[in-house]
Fold:
Amino acid sequence: MAMHVARNWRETPERYRMEAAKCKKCSAIHFPARLICPECQGREFATVRLSGKGELATFTIIRIAPTGFGDLVPYAVGIVKMDEGIHVMAQIVDCNPEELKIGDRVVSQFRRINQEGKNGMILYGYKFVPDLGL
Amino acid sequence: MTKWGELWEKSLRDISVEAALKCLDDAGVDKVDSITVGTMSGGLFNAQEHLGSLVADYLGQRFVPATRVESACASGGLAVKNAYMEVASGLSQYALAVGVEKMTDVDGGDATFALATASDYDYEAFHGITFPGLYALMAVAHMKKYGTSLEQLAQVSVKNHHNGSLNPHAQFPCAVTLDQVMTSTMVADPMRLLHCSPITDGSAAVLLVPLTVAKKMNKPYAVITGIGHASDTIALCQRKDFAKLEVVEVAAQRALKMAGKTIRDIDFAEVHDCFSIAEIIVMEALGVVESGQGGPATVNGLTALDGDFPINPSGGLKSKGHPVGATGVAQVVEAVIQLRGQAGPRQIKNARTALTQNMGGSGASSIIHILEAR
Structure:
């Protein structure tokens, strides 16, 4: 479904730069940013960028895709435990999905995610690829 | 409830009014004080919101206060809770709860999109995950942590389809074999087609009245003695343990406490088996078995119709169908049918106390009811 440009534009800090919020009271990191810390109710945060590095906590291979993702099938989607300790969900690409294992090291990259219909906005964001330590 | 399935010739208003009329006829009531409609997304499935008024109008209950409630796939359970609150508060004497979803007015891709809006859209669905995918992530975590096997997952579907084959209202009232489940089309590894609940058109309704009124109606009834309702993080990835559903643990504790019961006092349960893994994790969260024992217990027959703790005698979401907003109400309907002893070939012997567990999203909400026979 095509949304107003602002619907996607305002997500830029998270999608393009993986900006998270670090609670100034208890140091908990939240991705996406929140206005109130669920750990300590703190309301002041510092913006931090996630390192993009982590390991695969769980994953699946999507064989029947939602509208807009059909061309990618089969593709892996996983939950990555970031080195900062928090978890992020995204696609795992540039790999054979069948060979993925829990615990695999991955690193985020800036990629094209989807397009809102034939004439809609191209949406970008983060995906993870195997961390080859390059 | 009425027959569920792909009801091409029937509209959203048709199916909700049919279910409501069946309920009112059963109770011998022709005028209600309030209506609560549980629906996930009339907007995305049918381009129709404002369902409270739609149902009240076409049910011939003009001017009756009508409220639509939403908690994704737990909207039906929430409708029952809201009707309970109508009665408990004294605002209504006859409070009708209707659950409905008419899902086949859009194609499969749009239905998948509508359902995906129950996830954290910007951080889950945006990345191409589907609901089978979200539950697959839980399944992989559960298999890794506890050694749950593909056979154990598949056995949930075999058991529920057996039960559903005895339920004339079920969308797919047919048995399936372990082999059929384990070789069905892969949807999101390891969730195959026959691990997944289907797209369904359907509605269900229950009437809630004060006990003093129920006793005078000279009709068989059951009593809601416990309600537990909880919410959790909207995104699966923000929970500490992906092989667990804490929202169900919390809701169950609340419902059991209110009813003055423990899980050992429950004779059977209708649970939210939207995917096979969900039934396994839910039975662990309810305390029916220890964490990690849901798979082996299913294979050992604990949850079968003649087991010590039958789960989903109706056939569950898997076989009966899953019109998302209707499911929570239909679970309560099945509990009442069983407690009245009217379930025919799927009747559970000596069923006196039932638990229904309805769940929204990947476990971001859950509503549990405890019902007792009278």
Summary: The beta strands of chain A are 19-23, 29-30, 45-49, 53-62, 75-82, 87-92, 105-115, 122-130. Residues 5-130 of chain A form one domain.
